[in-house]
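Troubleshooting entry. The earlier prediction with LLP gave an output that would not parse, so I re-checked the input for stray whitespace and re-submitted. Clean input:
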Amino acid sequence: MHYFHYIGDELYCEEVPVREIAEEVGTPFYLYSYRTIERHYKTFDNAFSSIRHLICYSAKANTNIAILRIFVNLGAGVDIVSGGELYKALIAGFDPEKIVFSGVGKSDDEIDYALKEGILMFNVESPAELEVINERADVLSRKARVSLRVNPDIDPMTHPYISTGLKKNKFGISFREALKVYERARELRNIEVCGIDCHIGSQLTSLSPFVDSLIRLKELIWELKEKEINIRYLDLGGGLGIRYNDENPPHPDEYASAIIKEIYDMDLTIILEPGRIIMGNSGILITKVLYTKENEGKFFIIVDAAMNDLIRPSLYGSYHRIQPVVEKERDKIVADVVGPVCESGDFFAREREIPWMERGELLAIMSAGAYGFSMSSNYNSRRKVAEVLVYGDRFFVIRKRETYRNLIENEIIPDVLK
Ligand code: LLP
């Protein structure tokens, strides 16, 4: 459920006509709905209300500090994967006690930064990382709270690039090795073992992989208990999918009850790291038609947004609905919707049946709130687009469109070339 809807012929975000925003900020831009974010978050949070839990929004889905601030205001924690995300999370106002740090390649600097800020815990992804965290904590005279990210070797049945819980993936510590690593962790002076973590992939549309990996983790938790290693936090990562086209992912209530059924009698705090399920359908990308052309029977709609702004179709072959911002009687054609970047992989849709659009008209690329702007780049020296947040009948630019000056800000022509 989201608040992008037509009133008459016009697409609105909450109470604001999208066309009016485009007239003021220009195109392309990302547009987010506050009310949708809030609704998705509360639905997810309420689904777990019967058990002790902490929702750590997965920042990578969308790291705009205004978006992060919404989650702070809603009482959430945050899942980060870099020093940059830690920095942004702190600026946005997250309580360090609600920050979990995941990722296979945390650098010494990043570890130090997180230790100094006193984050809730590190999700440790290898025995080597565990040793480094212990060393850094020793140098800084801190104690590092850790969870081990266990790789349960479960197939999440999603796109291979976003599947993370298989043996062949780079993530986590193998199930077989985990016990040994826990025992090692217990011996380390500057480590406090407090949790177990797993994240098996993203855009999952069925419950069974979640439940199967949870069952495996439960076995491990019991084994750890026998060895008097006490697990207080069970972090189940993110991964719940959304509808882009005709997928039928489980509702958060179904997801939560499947989990709660497994763990209701365990004395644990559950951590969840949702990203896409909250942000995916809370944002869209608005773009303008620059040209249309026909090459011997093949139609192209060329728009002003490109793969550098939203890379999901190019990278994963992802489907995003595309619809006119102003509806009218139109012929339908089958066309590719493409951007201006010099790559054949620069497309938003291929062979899609779509209404015929005229130069200057606006299109909305739907379900672009997660992994949209956060994966954008400056390829082809294109300026990153603006981001706008609608709040009821008002809208706010939450990131200005980059300027040409921004493009060269950090670049230097050395004297020898002058
Ligand atoms: N926790 C960890 C440790 C993760 O690696 C991720 C996502 C999440 C939580 C959040 O997962 P979500 O709830 O959003 O599924 N760029 C890809 C998605 C990559 C996901 C990476 N990890 C895409 O556009 O589909």
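This one parsed fine. The first strand starts at residue 4 and ends at 7.
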